[in-house]
Amino acid sequence: MIPEAYISIGSNIGDRRAQIERAVTALSCLAEAPVRLSSVLETPPWGYDGGCDFLNICMALPVSIPPQELIGRLLAVQNEIDSSPHRNPDGSYADRRIDIDLIAVGSCVVSTPELILPHPRMHLREFVLIPLAEIAPGWVHPVLSLTPAEMLAAISSENCKFAQRKNCK
Question: Would the pTM count as exceeding 0.85?
Answer without folding.
Answer: yes
